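Module 6 notes. Inverse folding takes a fixed backbone as the condition and produces residue identities as the prediction. Think of it as a translation problem where the source language is geometry and the target language is the twenty amino acids. Below is one complete input and output pair. Work through it position by position during the lab.
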């Protein structure tokens, strides 16, 4: 059994939460101009071909702000699996976020585009299926994570985002490698693609580095605006499917180098903020996969296409032997 930790580096870095500012571009969303990660992966060009319509992305996290203006109508099903003991039949109640992390993740993957509000997600027409598995302190049990994965998959998720694993804040329960692998392999066996954050500052998902091995999941490291591996990003090791994606620089002196997305703050409505971490990199990939699935690729084909079209070697940690590079959705969604 190992302690699982949530990548809350971004929460520490996001003490300053900003409201959207004016801007223009491919989207009329006011803060589209602040989303350098979308530009890096070529989202604007990809959107001329696919926006992820018809694909459900599973968010297994701290929940989501169900009333957020940029996520309204995106959440088609949701549940609370905290305390389920690994039995998805015991998941019950509201998935309302009371910590913020899950709302930030969900916005990166699929915030609405061209609604004149906030930001745009990588797959702006995808839908969200949410399982709350972490409490207001960012703590949760491995068994609840497994139950959450199974629940979102059984409720139509074709991509499952797992932004978990970081020493910044300890989780009060334990998770075994077998628990995590059980959830991941369940998702893959049901035709859903798991996307895992590699972790921050050396620890990820309780199974770090080389031990990612042959898991049927895309393991994601983080890059900054300069397209190099972020200093905190845990190596994807020998994961058979490994890529990098924008996660932010975690530079307190320049918040614009982090990832701007939807957020939740107690007592505030429609919050937005900057965060950094592999937690932010993973939903870029989850959104990218949704774009490909919406084009008709099978799960296996979508994984292969994403890997093969990544910008080779860009953003990979020096200790990763299998990282294919930073994702490029413009290349991925273009005709072969």
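Target side of the pair, the amino acids:
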């Amino acid at each position: 059994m190992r302690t699982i930790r949530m990548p809350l580096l971004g929460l520490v870095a996001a003490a300053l939460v900003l409201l959207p500012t004016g801007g223009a571009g491919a989207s009329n969303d006011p803060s589209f101009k602040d989303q350098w990660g979308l530009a890096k992966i070529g989202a604007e060009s990809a959107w001329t071909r696919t926006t992820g319509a018809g694909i459900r992305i599973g968010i297994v996290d701290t929940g989501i702000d169900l009333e957020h203006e940029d996520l309204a109508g995106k959440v088609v099903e949701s549940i609370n699996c905290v305390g389920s003991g690994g039995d998805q039949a015991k998941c019950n109640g509201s998935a309302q976020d009371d910590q913020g992390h899950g709302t930030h993740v969900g916005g990166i993957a699929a915030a609405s585009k061209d609604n004149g509000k906030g930001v745009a997600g990588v797959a702006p027409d995808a839908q969200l299926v949410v399982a709350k598995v972490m409490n207001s302190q960012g703590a949760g049990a491995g068994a609840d994570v497994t139950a959450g994965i199974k629940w979102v998959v059984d409720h139509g998720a074709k991509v499952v985002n797992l932004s978990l694993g970081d020493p910044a804040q300890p989780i009060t329960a334990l998770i075994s490698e077998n628990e995590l692998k059980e959830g991941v392999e369940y998702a893959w066996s049901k035709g859903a693609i798991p996307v895992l954050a590699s972790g921050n500052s050396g620890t990820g998902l309780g199974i770090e580095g080389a031990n990612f091995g042959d898991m049927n999941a895309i393991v994601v490291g983080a890059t900054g605006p300069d397209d190099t591996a972020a200093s905190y990003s845990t190596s994807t090791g020998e994961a058979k499917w490994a890529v990098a994606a924008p996660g932010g620089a975690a530079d307190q002196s320049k918040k614009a180098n982090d990832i701007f997305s939807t957020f939740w703050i107690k007592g505030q409505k429609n919050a937005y903020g900057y965060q950094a971490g592999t937690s932010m990199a993973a939903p870029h990939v989850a959104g990218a996969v949704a774009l490909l699935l919406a084009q008709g690729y099978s799960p296996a084909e979508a994984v292969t296409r994403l890997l093969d079209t990544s910008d080779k070697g860009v953003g990979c940690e020096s200790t990763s032997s299998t990282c294919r590079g930073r994702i490029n959705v413009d290349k991925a969604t273009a005709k072969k």
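Reference fact for the lab report: Residues 2-333 form a domain with the Rossmann fold fold (CATH 3.40.50.200).
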